[in-house]
Amino acid sequence: MYIKSYKDLQVWQRSIELVKEIYLRTNDLPAAENYGLISQMRRSAISVPSNIAEGYKRGNIGDYIRFLNIADGSAAELETQIIIAKNIYHKVDFLKSESLLSETQKMLISMIKKLNAKRFLPNS
């Protein structure tokens, strides 16, 4: 399948689902967290598809890999924030968020590995 846009990438689509889920779950957190966990979690989540898109549009494999690594770093930030939120707010269900995040992280790692391997092939 030919990829015409970053929007065709499954990892981008999954990360958009993750953003929506994080917005839903953070609505369940208390208003006292508006400038704390809620803001941080939303920014981290938004950073994942944003960096996938930016890297794709850069047009060279080195930049693309760099931005995929940044997206993966943002995913790790979000993972940490979910752990914190779960430890403080036991009644908020982050199960779907964790599942989408795990899928996204696996896809990112797979893409990074494949692109790194392709990067060093002759005539690539």
Please name the CATH architecture: Up-down Bundle
Integer average pLDDT: 95
State the shape. elongated
Give the tally of structural domains: 1
Give a short summary of the structure.
74% of the residues lie in helices and 0% in strands. The protein is mostly helical and 124 residues long.
Question: What does this protein structure show overall?
Answer:
74% of the residues lie in helices and 0% in strands. It is mostly helical and 124 residues long. The protein has one domain (7-119): de novo design (two linked rop proteins), CATH 1.20.1440.60. Helix 1 (10-26) runs antiparallel to helix 4, helix 2 runs antiparallel to helix 3 (61-88) and helix 3 (61-88) packs antiparallel against helix 4 (95-119). It is elongated. It starts with 9 loop residues before the first helix and ends in a 5-residue tail after the last helix. The relative contact order is 0.16. The mean pLDDT is 95.
Write the layout of secondary structure elements.
Layout: H1 10-26, H2 37-58, H3 61-88, H4 95-119
Task: Sum up the structure in keywords.
74% helix; 124 residues; 4 helices; elongated; mainly alpha; de novo design (two linked rop proteins)
